[in-house]
Amino acid sequence: MTDPRIATWARTLVGYSVAVKPGQTVAIQGGVAAEPLLRAIYRETIARDAHPTMLPLFSGLGAELLRHGTDAQLDHLDPVERWVREGVDVSIRVMAETNTKALSAVEPARQARFQQARTGLMEAFMGRAASGALDWTLTLFPTDAYAQDADMATDDFAEFVYAACKLDRPDPVAAWREQAAEQERLIAWLAGKREIRLRGLDTDLTVSIVGRRWINADGTKNFPDGEIFTGPVEDGVDGHVRFSYPVVTAGREVHDVRLRFHGGRVVDASAAKNEAFLIQTLDTDAGARTLGEFAFGTNFGIDRFTKNILFDEKIGGTVHMAVGAGYPETGSVNRSAVHWDLICDLRDGGAIDVDGEPFLRDGRYVV
């Protein structure tokens, strides 16, 4: 039997996260391992008198293209891919990989070329989302592969996912609205502030936020959610930072990442594992060495590292930063084919001051 929480999940995504309206075109993408959730989302979309299009994804196809495709094939933009970013009213995507290491043998240069060819699509997607022309949400269905990455049994990982998404609550939407209210309180305190300073293990970094807007991430985009984020001033980041957890992307793990910034750009970078991949990613284009995002994690229901950024960047008491493309709605103007999130855990001895006032101590918000 299908877990009854699947129907609640679909109803929350369609009715709250993107609030599908009659007549809208809705693209539903997801790995075939998530068939129960995909079907439930499809049914909910129909019930709201909208127009769903199901786009099932088979695990490993991206690796086939990246390993064996010609340069022309890597550069080619699939018309369906373009439609999802430039044409639909609503995009709902369900991650459901059955092998998270499928891309590990792909040459970094080929991955960079594939990303560069899609810079325009990423900018169109972000621009439409910022203007309100596109509503989107992203979630993750628990598979064996994700559970293995998290060092958990699949059933235990599924329970972790349900709890992180607040689907174990009697009214998940009410729970997310409570989360939104707490995050709005933090945003109100940050309004008009000018500079953030982080201090922690091998970390002393200042980030200018003059004139930038904070966004309340409350389950209406990523699901689960639980963060507030902005776009740093492009030339206003200085100092050094050591990221606590590995970057896990494109089938690779980059461990012990350390970056030094001067005038907003990464001027020195190192990693204990896959350093060459880190450097090559930072050299993808002119914007890849600049921060496009700075965020505070606020979901204290996520308290462990899973090697999946959808959950890990939300861990309550951490911060994360993304090199590369920024979100226009924050005021960021940084453009790049890259958007790499890196997490700094401040729950044991870390401190953040904003304009000289205490904001976070040992992973707890003190304002």
Summarize this structure briefly.
By secondary structure, this protein is an alpha+beta fold.
Describe this structure in words.
The protein is an alpha+beta fold. The chain folds into 2 domains: 5-141, Thermophilic metalloprotease (M29) (Thermophilic metalloprotease-like, 3-Layer(aba) Sandwich); 172-365, no CATH class. Helix content is 32%, strand content 28%. It is built from 12 helices and 20 strands. The protein has helices at 5-17, 35-47, 61-68, 71-75, 79-86, 108-117, 119-131, 144-149, 154-164, 172-190, 275-282, 309-312, and strands at residues 25-31, 51-57, 90-95, 135-140, 195-200, 203-208, 215-217, 222-223, 227-230, 237-242, 247-249, 252-254, 258-262, 265-270, 291-297, 318-324, 339-345, 351-354, 357-361, 364-365. The strands form 4 sheets. It has an 8-stranded antiparallel β-sheet. A hairpin with a 2-residue loop joins β5 and β6. α1 (5-17) packs across α2 (35-47). The longest helix has 19 residues, at 172-190. The chain is globular and about 50 Å long. The model has no long low-confidence stretch (mean pLDDT 95). GO terms for molecular function: aminopeptidase activity; metal ion binding; metallopeptidase activity. It comes from uncultured Thermomicrobiales bacterium. One of its GO terms (biological process) is proteolysis. Belongs to the peptidase M29 family. Its cofactor is Co(2+); Zn(2+); Mg(2+).
| Tally of distinct domains | 2
Oligomeric nature of the chains: single chain
- Give the end-to-end Cα distance, rounded to a whole number of Å: 46 Å
| Structure classification | alpha+beta
Low-confidence stretches: none
Largest sheet: 8 strands, antiparallel
Determine the mean pLDDT: 95
Instruction: Please tally the helical runs, counting DSSP H or I stretches of 4 or more residues.
Output: 12
Total beta strands: 20
Instruction: Using the CA coordinates, give the radius of gyration.
Output: 20 Å
Structural shape: globular
